[in-house]
Amino acid sequence: MTMQLHDRGRRDAACEQCIFATDTAHFDHDVIAASKDRLVLVDLWADWCGPCHTISPVLTKLIAEYGGRVVLAKVEVDEDDNMKIAGRYGARGFPTVLLFANGELLDRFHGAKPEHYVREFIARHLAI
C-alpha cells in the first residue's frame, strides 16, 4: 500500500512517492525490502498525538529536500493492527521515528525534535 502524502502540491519527479502510508500487511515490502535501495524513515504516529503533528511538517520538509535519497513511511498505529509494528520495534511513545538501511533497523528517536536534530540524524546515516 502506498499513498502519496505530499503537501503544497509539490510534485518533484525524484520524490513522487517519497512519503507514503504503510501498514502491517505491507511493512516488510514497503520498508524492509525498500531499505536495501535507500534509507527509509518510519514515522510511527497517532492522530491523537500532539507531538506527532508537530514533527510531521519537519519530516515532510526534509524528505522533500533529499529528492528520493530518503523516503518516509508513515504508520498510523491506531489503524487496524498497526500497533503490532510499534510492538515489533519496542516503541514506547509516539512519535517514534525509525531509520532502516539494508533491511535492518539502524537508529531511532522518539518525540518531536527540532528540524536541525532530524536533519543531523538523517545526514549522519547518509554518510555511512
Write the layout of secondary structure elements.
Elements: E1 19-21, H1 27-33, E2 39-45, H2 50-65, E3 70-76, H3 83-88, E4 96-101, E5 104-110, H4 115-126
Parallel strand pairs: 1-3, 2-3
Antiparallel strand pairs: 2-4, 4-5
Structure in words:
The chain has 128 residues and is α/β, with parallel strands linked by helices. It has a single domain (13-126), classed as Glutaredoxin (3-Layer(aba) Sandwich), CATH 3.40.30.10. 32% of the residues lie in helices and 23% in strands. It is built from 4 helices and 5 strands; from the N terminus they run βαβαβαββα. The chain has helices at residues 27-33, 50-65, 83-88, 115-126; strands spanning 19-21, 39-45, 70-76, 96-101, 104-110. The chain has a 5-stranded mixed β-sheet, with helices on both faces. It is globular. The termini are far apart.
